Amino acid sequence: MVTMAVKRVEIQAAQRLRTLLREYFLDLDAASRDPGRRVAWCSSAGPCELLTALGFEVYFPENHGAMLGSKKVSAKYIPRAVGAGYSPEACSYMNSDIGAALCGYSPLQEAYGVAGPPRPDLLVYSTNQCREVQEWWNFFGRRHGAVVLGVRPPLHLGEVAAEHLRFVRGQLAELIERIEARFGLKMDEDRLREVVDLSSRASTLWRQVLDTARAHPSPLTFFDGLIHMAPVILRRGSQTAVDYYEALLAEMQARVADGVGAVPHERHRLYWDGMPVWPRVRDLSEKFFDLHAVIAASTYCNSWAFDPYDGGDPLLWMARTETEVFINRDEEVKEHFLMEMFQRFDIHGAIFHNARTCPNNTNSRFGMAQRLRQRLDTPILVIDGDLSDARFFSTAQTLTNIEAFIEQLEERLR
Amino acid sequence: MSGSLYVGVDVGSSATKCVLLDGAGRLVGRHVVPSGFDFGQSAEAALDKALLEAGADRSAIVHGVATGYGRERVTVATQRVTEITCHARGAREWYPQVRSIIDIGGQDTKVIHVGADGRMADYRMNAKCAAGTGTFLESVALKLGISLAEIDALAMQCTTDTILNSYCTVFAGTEVIERIKAGQRREDISMGLFRSIASRVVEMLASRDGPVGVTGGVVAHCRAMVRALEEALQTEVLRPPLPQHAGAYGAALIALNRATAHRAPQAVVPTRCET
User: Fold this and answer.
1) Do B125 and A2 touch (CB under 8 A)?
2) ipTM for this model
3) Residue A10 touches chain B, beta carbons under 8 Å
4) A348: which of A181, B4, B30, B71 is 20 to 30 A away, CA to CA?
């Protein structure tokens, strides 16, 4: 059989993204060494807007965890964290990040020539995503002698009621007061509105970028999304992020107009639920590419696609984004969301990633895959793996599983 | 022998199986060799022996399909298909009525559900863990210093409902030692191992509608595995004449179908990613 090598069509914005990230990490490093500037660490779905508005430079440790996973070095550093008393079954982002810190390693060293993550003056988490962030932040709070503060929205909600939002808004207001008191700062309400507005605009543009994947062929895949979602997390609340997504959206819209697909001869349209398998992103991306299968949509990349800010109370908008985020909802809401996504993106089959150390962002543990399979007559594959610890992932078994899944989809086309 | 031949080669983690079919779909040659370190070489060895049995040479081969973990190494293959599809295809040829196929291999276990139309409707593979696979048995046999055949023979003399409770292969080994220390009969402990595998398989069964077929090396060599599955499922399971060759047989049938199918082949050209 003749095999034809096909080149990927590169996304032009990637070059601009590299520059954006470089400037971001170099500036964080400069801020951490400048006595006149302050650095706050924040969880990825945490209240970063209020930190920016208070003048902090914001760093996101989960991004560092993902970098350790992508660099395939997590398994090297996790044992160090385990030795320090952290369970090997606990979040591998956390364990690898703690282990790397104990060993004095950071992928930022090779990538940007900086010593490592910026030293924090403050660490802020939200338990809207998981309990682990709290203990992760506490480790670094103790290590750096920095204050750790948190927001704890009500968990696993079905309907989000006004009282829930009032409760979370109250926590955000209290958080501001505590930071103001601790650091002698005063929140500028206009600045907070401005940051929230920029955050919302970047998020809306990001959602529009992801929505271009509704086209046949899809102009981008989940794997592209994993790269290009960086600004909506790291630079949320900045004009830089807004400008970036305007450019990316224009490029994706041009691809749709020109019929350019991310995968050649797109034949199967898939959905990815759960965390990425960072150490194996390349293997998986190439496998789907070769099988003419595009992962057109995912829960993960949509996690930072918030509803737009309407210009009203910025803290209420933040409370809503904190509370309504997918990971914090009950099974029924999640199931409804996935059904809508399958329909919206014309999904032929879905892959659920059962991430060993991330139960909170795994949705195959309570029968959801089975229920969706029956309700929608959509084939669903559950793969075992992990977000960062490659020792929980069998490449050969998983790639066979994926090939068999595509064979199953092929049979349905006949 | 003259005429066209269709080859199926299944390179599994433990054994490499080869099946040859003639143009009428008759099985004219087969062989199994250990997979060893060199999958390509073991595939060639199995093919040579199967050709010898068929009394044919390579010039008769029209199409070859490779399956199993080492499928990429099979040079005689013109197509590669996963073992999930191949086992389902092979089992259905023997037993068209089957709706669920349990394949217990050396490295993994699969449960495949087939629709009334014969198409693969769903499948599941075991988690990344040896529990529920042939490796589990081999590991415990090694620890006890006896062969798989001996464990099977002992298990068939079991008189109790003993089952090992440990999920983990390492813990199961410890549990076996504990039970020996407690004075349990080795016949009962041996059967407990097979029941442990059967209980893992049952977890993977999404549906229990229709007849169940079993394939793979473990059921080929161990009658106790079939008995444990029948106990767990509370029904008779269909064990084909060549359970270990089911994947290779299915692969050979796909090779034969490819030559005779009226359907057009897949409309797209396979591609290889270049980054």
Assistant:
1) no
2) 0.84
3) no
4) B71
